[in-house]
Amino acid sequence: MNKVDLSAVWAPTVLGKDRIDQRRWAYAVAAPFDMPADMPGLVGMKVQLDGSIFEIGGFVPRMPPLPIKEGEAIELLVRATAAPSM
After folding, report:
1. pLDDT in tens, 3-27
2. Contact 27/17 with Cβ under 8 angstroms?
3. CB-based contacts of 5: which residues, under 8 Å, 6+ apart?
C-alpha cells in the first residue's frame, strides 16, 4: 500500500487513544506506509478503530516535520460517525 483509497475503510493497528469529548478522540496508530509529514489524503477518510467507524478530521503534526516511515506511530484526530458504543 502506498496511497490512501478514500472508498475503503482503513483499520490500522491502534497503539493508544485519548478521549477528547463524547464524539472526538485522538488515536495513535501505526502508519500504513511511508508518507510525507503532512499525511496527504488522510483527512476526511473513514477509519475503523476499536470496532467503531470514525472520520479523520486531522492529525497531530510532527516536529520537526520529517517523512513518516511505515509502522511509525502517527496521531489521528477522529470523530465518531455514529453514537459511540464505548
Report:
1. 555 556 889 999 999 999 999 999 9
2. yes
3. none
